[in-house]
Amino acid sequence: MKPTVKLAESPTPEGTTLALFEHDGEFFLQEDGIQIQSSFAHSAERALGDLAAHPFRPVRQPRILLGGLGLGFTLAAVRASLLQKRGIFVVAEPVADLPDWHRQHLSDLHPGQIDDPRVVVRHGSLTAALRAKDEGFHAILVDCEGGYAQRELGDRQGLPHRSVLSRLHDGLQEGGLLALRTASAPAFERRLRQAGFDVASEMVPAADKGKQKRRYFIWLARKGRYQSQPRSNTNSNR
User: Fold this and answer.
1) Taking all residues of the chain, what is their mean pLDDT, rounded to a whole number?
2) DSSP symbols for 196-216
3) Helical H runs in 9-139?
């Protein structure tokens, strides 16, 4: 049996411990012993990035804000969808050591990603990044299932409070998109609409391999009127 190896650990702003492990070529993040992300099951994280980025492929200089780096699959999907050299991908990451983990331990997952000149990693929370004097973003991505990085935003279910949604709404350009991954939470649509968004959603699998059948919502909340973008291999719920 191959061993599970702890590669690194660091405290989070919430006082918990974030740790990176490797087992048989797969990597996973644990927060206080609870697995929150893995390289084996990452389809939903990629779908979050893909769906959020898709409408902005024609934009000359897309500006995207991501809440948390995690294992990097959402950022990788955004980079693959938006190849513009003038794109700007801001990652608000509360754990200062995590970018170095990507360079030291995860470079084979996403070669060159953390040093892509379009990627700007800011040490701090998503709300702190929104307070920076940036122009509005085309898209803001929030992984509500990603653990430590989103805890400041959410209620007991991990869903952003109404006040936070209003702040996210203000941080978008007109026509911009707030994309969120959540577990089953149909009532969340009402909260998004009350914050001024036009809302669509997708159901996506947690993983494309293995026997897992868990699925997640990807909420696509537009500041302004939503125009659907076709995407294969997903079930649309509007």
Assistant:
1) 88
2) T-EEEEEEEES-SSSS---EE
3) 43-53, 73-81, 98-104, 126-131
Q: What is the C-alpha radius of gyration for the chain, rounded to an integer number of angstroms?
A: 17
Q: How far apart are CA 226 and CA 122, in angstroms?
A: 30
Cα 184 → chain centroid: 17
Is residue 49 predicted with pLDDT exceeding 70? yes
Q: Are strands 119-123 and 88-93 parallel, antiparallel or unpaired?
A: parallel
Residues near 208 by beta carbon (within 8 Å), at least 6 away in sequence: 43
Pair of tokens at residue 218: 């990807």
- Over residues 143-170, the pLDDT tens digits come to 988 777 667 777 767 788 888 999 999 9
The residue type at 161? H
Calculate the alpha carbon distances from 131 to 20, 37, 127 in Å: 30, 28, 6
* Strand 88-93 versus strand 63-67 pairing type: parallel
Q: Any idea which residue has 């409070």 for tokens?
A: 161
- Cα–Cα distances (Å) from 206 to 108, 114, 136, 164, 224, in that order, read 22, 24, 30, 26, 29
Statement: residue 104 has pLDDT above 90: yes
* % of the chain residues with pLDDT over 90: 67
Q: What is the dihedral sign for C-alpha 162, 195, 201, 73?
A: negative
pLDDT digits (tens, 9 = 90+) for 163-219: 899 999 999 999 999 999 998 777 889 999 999 999 999 998 877 665 667 788 999
* Average pLDDT value for residue range 93-120: 95
Q: Is the dihedral of CA 101, 64, 115, 25 positive or negative?
A: positive
